[in-house]
Amino acid sequence: MSSSKTPSFFISLPVASLSSSADFYKSLSFTPLPDYSDSNTTSLRFPYSSNANICLMLHSTSRFEEFIRRGSEIVHAKKATGAIYTLGVPSKEDVDGFLEKAEKAGGKRDPFEIKEYGKSLGLYTRSFEDLDGHIWEATTMLNEKAQEGA
Predict the structure, then answer these.
(1) Which InterPro entries does this entry report, sorted A to Z (predicted)?
(2) Which CA distances in Å does 56 have to 10, 19, 53, 68, 83?
């Protein structure tokens, strides 16, 4: 898939610091999308060609508030988990490398651990927390049976 192709799926997250969060995700090989960015939003394409149709939109809290229901509050991800975002990567080494990059960039490795998580399905999965506390997983399929089911 061409990196110039318009994303077809968007994930929007509130962040405390656009520049720090953008730097964090760029260190994980997310690619900037200037056409979808401005002073209150930084947009990035997910890494790996299999995820190239997905766009991560990081919003200042004031911008994010423009998109939510009136009277509702922005969830503070370090206090409550509203979602877990899972990124498919090509190999077990990529999963471990992704976590190393996240930790080096200021994220927290394995905020939760589930023994042999995904093993019965032929998956290898690890988790990390970004700078704002949003929970992410990196996962890969380890066997042909798992890959056929994807």
Answers:
(1) Glyas_Bleomycin-R_OHBP_Dase
(2) 6, 14, 10, 17, 14
**Mean pLDDT of the region 110-126:** 85
Cα 29 to Cα 47, 51, 64, 134, distances in angstroms: 6, 12, 24, 17
Instruction: Please state the φ and ψ torsions of residue 113, each to the nearest 5 degrees.
Output: -130, 130
Q: Where are the beta strands (DSSP E) in the chain?
A: 9-15, 31-32, 41-45, 54-60, 84-88, 108-109, 123-129, 135-141
What residues does each domain of the chain span?
Answer: 1-68, 81-150
- pLDDT for res 4: 62
Q: Tell me if 1-68 shares its fold with 81-150.
A: yes
Q: Give the gyration radius of the chain's Cα atoms.
A: 16
Residue 101: how many other CB atoms lie within 10 Å: 17
Question: Span 81-150: which CATH code?
Answer: 3.10.180.10
Cα distance between residue 105 and residue 93, in whole Å: 18
Token reading at 49: 């060609």
pTM over 0.85: yes
Query: Is residue 122's pLDDT more than 80?
Result: yes
Query: Stretch 89-118: mean pLDDT, rounded?
Result: 91
